[in-house]
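Internal tracking record. Fields below are filled automatically when a chain is submitted to the structure queue. Please do not edit lines marked as system-generated. If the sequence contains nonstandard residues, flag them in the REMARKS field before resubmitting.
Queue: standard
Priority: normal
Entity type: single polypeptide chain
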Amino acid sequence: MAETKRMPSERALIDFFTAQKEQAREEREDLEKYWTDAENAYLNKHDFSKKKEWQAKLFYSITSPTLNRASRMIKNMLLKTEDYFEMDYIGPEDMPLAQAFKPAVRFYLNDADFPERFAEACMSSFNYAIGILGMSARVSNRTVIVNGQKRTRKLSKLNIETCNPWHCFWPKDWGFFIKDSWLTLPRLLQNAEAGIYDEEDKPGSGLKKLKKIMGADYRLETPGGDSKTQEDERLMRLGIKDHVNEFRKQVLLSYYWGPIIDKKGNITDENQRFIVVNEKYILAKPDLNPFAHQNLPYVFINPLKVLFRHFGEGLSWGVAPIQKELTNMLNLMSDSLKFKMAGIIEMNQDLLINKDKPLELYPGCTVRRRGDPRQKALEHHELGADPEWAAGFVALLRGIYENHTGVTEFLQASPTLKGSPTATEVATKTGVGQGYFESIAEDIDRQGIVGAAEMAKDLVIQYFADMGAHPSVKEVFVEEGSLIESLSDEQKEELLLGDWNIKARGLSLWFERKEQINKLARHNDFLKAIPPEIALTQVDWRAIGEAWAEAVWGDKNKFWKWSEMEQQEQPGVLPTVGGELPPIEEEAPLVSPRLPYGGMQ
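SYSTEM-GENERATED OUTPUT FOLLOWS
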């Protein structure tokens, strides 16, 4: 007879949870120091508390525009690339229906605003060395009132969340994962009433458990101790004022994912999930990971790795002191300029009748004095150095920063500090910068896009094969000859266990098109030099047009659509030799981090 595993008591489970979270918190103490410095740099925070009122309090910002530009660029890449991933079912048996999951998965990802969330996760990875996307399935209720009657329609949707690393805890070996989430008490009650925290085959158990917790601690205060202190510090870093409203009390939910281990070191249960309220009460008892893929419901992005370290590094961690020094230099230059312009006034009090008058000087005022007129009662002295002397030093610091990150002034579209650069210098440095970013594009594609597509595919198979599926997705499956809700349990299992070949075509495809456009642009310059009589008879304009359409739009047939539109606007006009073919949208400058190994470039 199989041995029945004994469920640990609630007190023992809370002790286990506390020990796991404390271990993860202690192991990341050094990492939090990097996070704090990176966050201060991104939020343009600097300590000016010891400065006097007249002194400048300016901030030299590099990190914030760099990360914002990187995020926008990644989002634009995905939005301009319709097929940012490829998905093929390769066994064990051929299932024509499986091919319909590619457009279905893409629809659900786009419906969940994946490009926006993915760009945020990439920005997080550049700033905190890790980006975390939480992915789950949910039912969205759309309620309308028609003729005084309330009607509700349920639609299945993917839920994609960009997680704050400060709210996530994991050990060096990734043996477990804890995600903290702050909710208001009314929202927590709504979730419990909707059955989100119910045990399997026990409807209403979550709400019953929550009411029992509220009975033991009916006020359900915001937790104290380290958790409250950390939340206060987080709000302070973000410049948000914490406010306690007795009608909207804050509740801390902690989701634990991983094995349960007893004090002897024995694993009593694998792949468990349970929920803790305010680090004191168990809201949802340990249960098997509800997702069919049996993995963490999170996608992790960590493209900037460091050799032999369980976490990588942020884009500007190695040069964070340079931004501080640039800020100090900027303020010093401003203060020096004030001294040079205003100077100081030397006063001979023995020659003044009203000795307090110089303290109230203004342009055009009169000052009464006595004594020898050849002696000066007030004398202006110029102080301060010319701020231009520091420009060279500032350029040097910026150069060091750019060499470390690969983000040059050409990629940032910012004014250069080196005079007028040559065209060769601009092309060379821009190309090198693009090379840096292209070198990590494969890691971002593999970790982020492939991971998200893989998880979305499993969620669609597990949860959306029913009448709650979105109508737009049903149409896709109708075209393949079967409705999504007609999948049998055996077919679902076969699709979940089958081999899928998923390749990312997001950032890497964008770079391929960019290189193709550059080659065609050089080819177009060559065509301009061809005499018209030769160009009209010897040049295959059809092939050139299709090549441009393939590079710009990813579809050579779009050239003929564009050509037809041009002919409708200007009928009878033939293409000009060496003229412009398809219009090219202006791309944002690339932001190009380096790929570090062991802290060396």
